[in-house]
Write a structure and sequence with these properties.
The complex is a heterodimer of chains A (about 550) and B (about 450). With about 550 residues, chain A is of the alpha/beta class. Chain A has 18 helices and 28 strands. An eight-stranded parallel beta sheet of chain A has the order 8-11-12-13-14-15-18-22. In chain A, a hairpin with a 2-residue loop joins strand 24 and strand 25. The radius of gyration of chain A is 22 Å and the shape is globular. Chain B is α/β, with parallel strands linked by helices and about 450 residues long. Chain B folds into two domains: about 190 residues, Rossmann fold; about 170 residues, Dimethylsulfoxide Reductase, domain 2. In chain B, helix 17 links the parallel strand 20 and strand 21. Classes of the chains: A alpha/beta (about 550), B alpha/beta (about 450). At the A-B interface, helix 1, helix 2, strand 9, strand 10 and helix 4 of A face helix 1, helix 4, helix 5, strand 9 and helix 6 of B.
Chain lengths: ~550, ~450
């Protein structure tokens, strides 16, 4: 018989089950939440503490060939942040791109227990799994980049939708991925000859299809495969003034279909040029409020050092020219691109300050917390360790007012932030950091404390300084084991890989092997990843097609 | 991992097992289309491989190392005990080599370094480390080899000799390869070779530019100045007429998709990483005119994989020191040549690499004066003088695992035959267990820290 645990006396915030601060006993048996424990149980006294499900990060970059390239090319980022080894725990480094072991420890210390890596080129996924194996404690999943895949573009050009569906299912199955990611659909393919797309109807070189067609096709595939998460979209024109028009056009294109808009802060900009740079958060939030098919994470900007890592090659080239910082570019055959540029967000830089304000405006203007999630697009808008700081900004209007005095004064004239009085409640924070992302991911056993859920639980102190509160949990439980006690990590353990099992939609055609080998430089048989190579894993079945 | 998957070969009537889709462990091209014929547990033939790859498989039974302690025959168990004792006692040990093995063994070596507070470095340190430093300085505009196969219409080989070092690079990726927009292969590409002397690579090039040794930095700087529209008031740079450089620059600017591959001609000549910085900056700036990329011709064995796993576990790609209980990076201090030249390390573990055979005599001298453990399938100059020699199953032939291509693409290596010896990974795992037990006051090994680490 396994381990029994009881958490008693705590104020429980479990929004998925309608519980908002009630004192409630939580029983744990064999890593799951149960009605009552079978035998004598260890008791955690949570009196005067706040109990929430473990945090769920729907969009972060913690492991991939791109993330590792960023680590290797930024020694200056790590040298001031050593993470010493401890009994049972490995050493590493922090900074904006922490080493793998440190990543697992840092997320756990913040009370997060499930994280999703947001961008993976298929041919590099074998590498990502190896990194994820070395990220301890938290459960992990990965999205697979498909928005510029030349095989998909080829089938799309030929109008072979069923073939795209079979190919997507084959990719997810072969690579043990969790969902479909699109980054600047069509634009990254254009970047392979040094160009980008200006809008959704630009025709892509040679393939002669448009971003709009790619969006519609992959959205249709996602829904007809019944995948638990909607398509996860990094829209076209990220970071560019006046991109909110493209953002609205994109959302309208997929009206009525489930859609996750990633790091929407980076897509809510107005102004004809950098000089006129301004917020269009209100317009974007208004559209989202009126369209329940959309979920989004913010990609909040945090002042200080960041490392921008994205498959959006053309954007990274622009950022390299704008910032004059070092620039890493790696175009990946058949699939996508990758760019890395270090970047520092400054309070007194008007663009950075407005970016910061836009993120907060979106958080405060999007009314339904179940559809807006906390992210910094780590490490693009800043490192994930600043989530508690963002939470304080959302919960504490006085703190926002203090920050408004420090940042560039154009925030006062060019955004609505100074006029927003909303303060998030603890329940709402529990929604945007765990219950909401878990629901949007279709992870029915995460993000809540009902019977049958994974016993991934965080217990916070009650502290009116919300940054302190969320930065220093007292306990963290992962699968019913205490991994953090009195604020200290007490032991490491393996986390699981969460991967989706797509429905059987038929095999690829016999000629696919030849087609694959013509496009790629590796053998078709050497592409799929054996599940046995991933020691700890959990299959999540796809639902019925929608 | 791949041990379990092992060989899913096809047996025919003569009891010949043909293993298809085998990845070659020899160089960074990582051809994964080899066909290995195994008869009675012995490799009888290898199809599709180049001469270097074929030799690696065909001669894998020759020149095996034998388990010894201080030159005397011993069992593997005794060797592992002796190795653990040396490492547990050492105050400032070095772990080095690690290019010719698979990812999980490399991972174990880092875990061991973390445990004993060692310096850990690998053969990059003496080949492409300056390339890594240059990328840390300015970044890089690069791509995977498939992009070159599918798109490149201009390929420049600078200070490298793939015809001899990476034999199938040309046919699989860069010269005769036929791809999506290069359907005619060689006819769709212009190939230019720049070097200090003609090499066999020169023969596959459409043009050859012979420059003076140690003039690369100057040449790249001149090209960059001209790219920015400056007229240079000199007749030659690097021993080559300025007009010839102008022609080259025009070819680069007018290509649709150009790539420059560089080799140790840049990293190990005067200027070292600064040569590569000059090159990378030129290539980045060419992107104002056209699509231009660059990549180092990397890879003896899995040296790229070692840089990968070291980066994700410690944040740094080579020359890592763990003596304070956390990783520090300082090439010139924690790099192997300096640690040995300064006579700082007091014990060494050399895994799957021949340190003594490749280092200058003075550097090798210190290595021979301290307790040294060699883990290697083959006899080498290193195993000849090591205090403890532990033979292992050769990665990619008698042990499975993962390796990385020169462009960071991961591939699986298959185990095609058995070996009487354990794998590198298993040996390192057993050393870790022994050392942990000793460090734990003889109370037995503590529970492994992070199971995922292994």
């Amino acid at each position: 018989m396994g381990r029994s645990l009881k958490i008693v006396g705590g104020d429980v915030y479990d929004p998925a089950n309608g519980i908002s601060g009630a004192v409630k006993e939580i029983c744990i048996q064999d890593g799951k939440i149960v009605e009552s424990c079978k035998g004598p149980a260890e008791v955690i006294d949570a009196t005067n503490l706040v109990v929430m499900p473990g945090g769920v990060d729907i969009h972060t970059h913690i492991a991939s060939p791109a993330v590792n390239a960023a680590r290797a090319f930024r020694p200056e980022d790590h040298r001031h942040e050593p993470v010493p080894k401890k009994p049972g725990m490995r050493s590493g480094v922090g900074g904006t791109v922490p080493s793998t072991f440190a990543t697992g420890y840092l997320y756990t210390k913040m009370g997060y227990t499930t994280v999703m890596d947001a961008a993976n080129a298929p041919i590099g996924v074998r590498h990502t799994h190896e990194e994820l194996i070395d990220i301890p404690i938290v459960d992990k999943g990965l999205y697979i980049l498909m928005g510029n895949n030349e095989l998909i573009l080829k089938y799309l050009k030929a109008g072979e939708m069923e073939k795209i569906k079979r190919y997507v299912a084959w990719l997810l199955k072969s690579l043990k991925g969790y969902g479909i990611k699109l980054v600047n659909p069509g634009g990254v393919e254009q970047w392979k000859y040094g160009k980008d797309v200006e809008g959704l109807d630009d025709r892509i070189y040679y393939w002669d299809v448009t971003a709009r067609q790619i969006l519609k096709a992959l959205s249709w595939v996602n829904e007809s495969l019944g995948l638990p998460h909607p398509i996860h979209l990094h829209a076209n024109r990220l970071g560019i003034p006046n991109n909110y028009l493209t953002t609205l056009d994109t959302m309208r294109t997929l009206e009525g279909s489930r859609l996750h808009m990633a790091h929407i802060q980076f897509h809510s900009y107005g102004g004809e040029n950098w000089g006129g740079f301004c917020s269009k958060a209100a317009e974007v939030a208004e559209y989202i409020n009126a369209h329940p098919n959309i979920t989004t994470d913010i990609g909040q900007v945090v002042f200080g050092d960041a490392t921008t890592i994205t498959a959006d090659g053309p954007w990274q080239y622009r950022l390299y020219k704008l910032s004059k910082n070092k620039w890493y570019n790696l175009d990946v055959e058949v699939e996508t691109g990758c760019g890395i540029v270090p970047y520092t967000y400054r309070e007194k830089n008007y663009v950075n300050a407005i970016q910061w304000a836009i993120g907060l405006e979106l958080f405060l203007l999007i009314r339904d917390p179940w559809r807006v999630f906390l992210s910094t697009d780590h490490p693009n808008g800043g490192p994930f360790i600043f989530y508690p700081w963002v939470i304080k900004l959302l919960m504490d209007k006085a703190f926002r007012a203090e920050m408004l005095k420090r940042v560039h004064k154009r925030v006062l004239s060019d955004t609505t932030l100074p006029n927003l009085d909303r303060e998030y409640t603890l329940s709402e924070i529990a929604i945007i950091t765990r219950a909401g992302p878990a629901r949007a991911l279709g992870l029915t056993h995460k993000g809540h404390l009902g019977v049958g859920a994974d016993a991934d639980i965080t217990i916070y102190p009650k502290d009116s300084d919300r940054e302190q509160m969320f930065e220093h949990p007292i306990y963290v439980l992962k699968d019913g084991e205490i991994v953090l006690r009195e604020g200290e990590l007490v032991g490491s353990r393996d986390g699981k890989l969460l991967f989706v099992v797509p429905p059987d939609v038929g095999e690829m055609d016999p000629e696919f092997k030849t087609e694959f080998e013509n496009f790629y430089t590796i053998e078709y048989e050497n592409f799929p990843i054996d599940a046995e190579d991933i020691p700890n894993r959990e299959a999540i079945p796809a639902g019925a097609s929608r | 991992m791949a041990e379990a998957a092992a060989v899913k070969g096809v047996k025919d009537a003569k009891d010949v097992t043909v293993v298809e889709g085998v990845t070659c462990p020899f160089c960074g091209v990582c051809c994964d289309d080899l066909e290995v014929h195994v008869v009675d547990g012995k490799i009888k033939d290898v199809k599709n491989a180049c001469v270097l790859g074929k030799d690696t498989f065909m001669h894998h039974l020759e020149g095996w190392a034998k388990p010894t302690i201080k030159g005397k025959p011993a069992t593997i168990d005794e060797c592992i005990d002796a190795a653990a004792e040396i490492l547990a006692k050492a105050k400032y040990p070095l772990i080095y080599g690690l290019d010719s093995t698979e990812l999980n063994a490399q991972r174990k070596a880092i875990e061991l370094a973390d445990l004993i507070g060692a310096n850990i470095d690998h053969t990059s340190s003496v080949c492409h480390a300056p390339s890594l430093q240059a990328v840390q300085t300015v970044g890089i505009s690069s791509c995977t080899v498939g992009e070159v196969k599918n798109r490149a219409d201009l390929v420049i080989f600078w200070g490298c000799n793939p015809a001899e070092a990476h034999p199938r690079h040309a046919s699989r990726y860069s010269v005769t390869a036929k791809g999506l927009f290069t359907t005619k292969g060689k006819k769709d590409r212009m190939v230019i070779n720049v070097d200090v002397r003609p090499t066999p690579t020169t023969r596959m090039a459409d043009a050859f530019i012979q420059i003076k040794p140690n003039s690369d930095y100057e040449v790249f700087s001149a090209l960059r100045a001209m790219l920015r529209g400056h007229e240079l008031d000199c007749v030659e740079v690097g021993g080559v007429a300025i007009d010839e450089w102008k022609t080259l620059l025009e070819k680069m600017k007018s290509s649709k998709f150009g790539i420059l591959y560089w080799g140790m001609g840049l990293t190990m000549s005067r200027g070292k990483y600064l040569n590569v910085v000059a090159l990378l900056t030129l290539i980045q700036e060419l992107n104002r005119c056209t699509k231009f990329l660059s990549a180092p011709m990397r890879g003896h064995g899995n040296v790229v994989g070692m840089a990968q796993v070291l980066s994700w576990q410690t944040g740094y790609p080579f020359a890592v020191n763990m003596s304070r209980g956390y990783p520090r990076f300082n090439p010139g201090e924690y790099s192997v040549a300096d640690l040995l030249a300064n006579k700082e390390v007091d014990a060494a573990l050399i895994v799957a690499g021949d340190a003594i055979g490749n280092f200058p005599a003075k550097t090798a001298e210190h290595l021979q004066s301290i307790p040294m453990i060699a883990i290697d399938p083959k006899e080498s100059e290193t195993t000849k003088v090591a205090t403890v020699v532990i033979p292992t199953a050769q990665a990619g032939i008698a042990a499975g695992g993962m390796l990385y291509r020169m462009d960071h693409i991961p591939l699986v290596m298959k185990k095609v035959v058995d070996s009487p010896y354990p794998s590198d990974r298993e040996v390192l795992d057993r050393i870790i267990a022994k050392v942990s037990a000793m460090k734990n006051g003889g109370k037995g090994a503590p529970k492994p820290a992070v199971k995922g680490g292994g």
